[in-house]
Amino acid sequence: MLNVPKTQLARFLAHAKNGLPYEACALLSGTLDGANATVQWIYLLTNMDQSPEHFSMDPKEQFAAIKDMRRHGWALLGNLHSHPSSPPRPSAEDKRLAFDPSLRYLILSLMDEEPVLRCFHIRGGHMEKEPITLLEDEKMGVVE
């Protein structure tokens, strides 16, 4: 199960809407407790591709995010990107580029009026959904 604070998701949603018509991307950091993970911070990154169909994260921003995660004692939980006009499921390219089976791959679809978020584990090109719980901030130790 992946636990995501509503304020963190709202930050990414704003990032994704501001980046339209292109895909937006981010890294997820937080804590692990067995099969459960809790997001502490979503690092909003630049999509270097400036494309509505794929993304490439800025390497300098990635390194800065990893450095900050280490400083806070957080783990890299996965990545998050938007699909401006397609459903929240991994594309063939998403599956091909999912190198680490331990990470979570989240997709936020903006194709409908109400955004839809899905979480997947991708192993060997096969995807498996993981449930997401949205948390109120008072239940979180979110560091801003």
List the helices and strands and how they pair.
Layout: E1 2-5, H1 6-18, E2 25-33, E3 36-45, H2 59-72, E4 75-83, H3 92-96, E5 104-109, E6 116-123, E7 126-130, E8 132-135
Parallel strand pairs: 1-3, 1-8, 4-5
Antiparallel strand pairs: 2-3, 2-4, 5-6, 6-7
Protein name: Mov34/MPN/PAD-1 family protein
Organism: Ethanoligenens harbinense (strain DSM 18485 / JCM 12961 / CGMCC 1.5033 / YUAN-3)
GO molecular function, one term: zinc ion binding
Summarize, please:
The protein has helices at residues 6-18, 59-72, 92-96; strands spanning 2-5, 25-33, 36-45, 75-83, 104-109, 116-123, 126-130, 132-135.
Explain the overall architecture.
This protein has 144 residues and is an alpha/beta fold. It has a single domain (11-133), classed as Cytidine Deaminase, domain 2 (3-Layer(aba) Sandwich). Helices cover 22% and strands 38% of the residues. The chain has 3 helices and 8 strands, in the order E-H-E-E-H-E-H-E-E-E-E. An 8-stranded mixed β-sheet has the order 7-6-5-4-2-3-1-8. The radius of gyration is 14 Å and the shape is globular. Keywords: Hydrolase, Metal-binding, Metalloprotease, Protease, Zinc. This is Mov34/MPN/PAD-1 family protein. GO terms for molecular function: metalloexopeptidase activity; zinc ion binding.
CATH superfamily: Cytidine Deaminase, domain 2
CATH architecture: 3-Layer(aba) Sandwich
Tell me the number of helical segments per DSSP (H or I, 4 or more residues long): 3
Low-confidence stretches: 140-144
The string of secondary-structure elements, in order, is: EHEEHEHEEEE
**Overall outline:** globular
CATH class division: Alpha Beta
**At the third CATH level, what is the topology name?**
Cytidine Deaminase, domain 2
Rg over CA atoms: 14 Å
* Percentage beta strand: 35-45%
The first-to-last residue Cα distance is 23 Å
Spatial sequence of strands, sheet with the most strands: 7-6-5-4-2-3-1-8
Number of domains: 1
Largest sheet: 8 strands, mixed
Count of beta strands: 8
Based on secondary structure, the structural category is alpha/beta
Mean pLDDT across residues: 92
Share of helix among residues?
A: 10-25%
Domain MPN: 2-126
InterPro entries: JAB_dom_prok, JAMM/MPN+_dom, MPN, VirAsm_ModProt
GO molecular function: metalloexopeptidase activity; zinc ion binding
Keywords: Hydrolase, Metal-binding, Metalloprotease, Protease, Zinc
